[in-house]
Amino acid sequence: MGKDKYVITIDRLYGSGGRIMGKKLSEELGIPFYDEEILKMASEESAIGEQYFRLNDEKAGNNLFFRALGGLRTSLEEPSLDDDITSPENLFRFQAKMMRRVAAEQSCIIMGRCADFVLEAAAIKNLVRLFVYSDSSTCIRRVVEVDGVDTKEALRRVNRISKERRDYYKYYTGKEWEDMANYDLPINTTTLELDPAVELVKAYLRLRNIAV
Q1: Concatenated DSSP letters for 71-103?
Q2: pTM metric for this prediction
């Protein structure tokens, strides 16, 4: 493994297998994997109940002023300890603070939550931003298999959760979630199984001289 620290962020369509890939990469590269762990850490840091973070997890806020300005202006500020401590925007800032902290300390993988935007703004060295996606039918098939629901419910979840993530990303970054220019390596898992997709990421890291 390369001696320099590196950080992988993974954004993903619901049902594309991005989270499974993240866990496999974590195991094979021997680096920590952060998903909902970020919520727990932010809760402990802020002394705000974890349920507040879960209720707002990867969902856009409804502050029209914030939306009009574009999240990129204020979402990277230090979190507030004032009256707005439990606002969605402030909860995001606590999460962003935790992501910056773990990324500064160690090689790791961070799922979603605009980590690519947060860590690029923090000038984290050796940042690798992935976007994992599949066509609709593949996402639906995976959700049926993993969540144990019927096709109709799987379609509903794919549409709802992907829309929530799309709106969330736009709200806090001012950018389009599915604009591939935001990422270093987009991966289409429609015809590529997840194990070969993991090997593809590892090959990309080698090409970047980040890990061996």
Answers
A1: GGGTTTSPPP-STTTTSHHHHHHHHHHHHHHHH
A2: 0.90
